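Shipment paperwork, digital attachment
Item: protein structure file
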Amino acid sequence: MPSNRFMNLSNNKKEKIHRAIINEMKKHSYDHINISNIVRDADISRGSFYQYFNNKDDFYFYILDFIGSKKQRYMDIEYLQNHLIGFIKKLEHIVHASIEFSKANQDYVSIGIQLYASTHPTIKTFVSDSIHDMQKLLELWLSQDKTYQHISNKTSLCHYLASTMTYHTQYALTQKALEEVKTDLLILIKLLEGGITYV
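Attachment content:
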């Protein structure tokens, strides 16, 4: 995470550094990010940069957190936290919200492409952890929906769904096929709604 020194910078200076990092992240995977490009584009010294961020992980995951926070604004959190809203409706909501977010934020889409392209262990762990977090959220939603209490292996189902949604997202970003993937995911959700009796 950024240092207090970074957080206390003027908004204009923070935005310039922020933009320089995003420009580098959207062009290169984690493995090939060059801090020299960032400090050049931000018009700051390398020494100043390291007063703001300790290392690559510091600024990389700061930006990913920022993107995640922005993506959440496309989602109706109150709707998703409502126990009376069914599991299927919540799945549909996050698919629609995710696609709309991607359409409106091409820079972040480019960063997503670079994220999934990386074979670095740190990034592979991040993606794996993200799938696990999604799985746990889906399990919570599924446990709150009385319609699906007969499903015995909720963990396996939710792991499958979380993995499928993640890798469909990867395909959508790399192939620029947002609407195609949106359709595929909604079909999958409809199949779930109409068809899974025992898992």
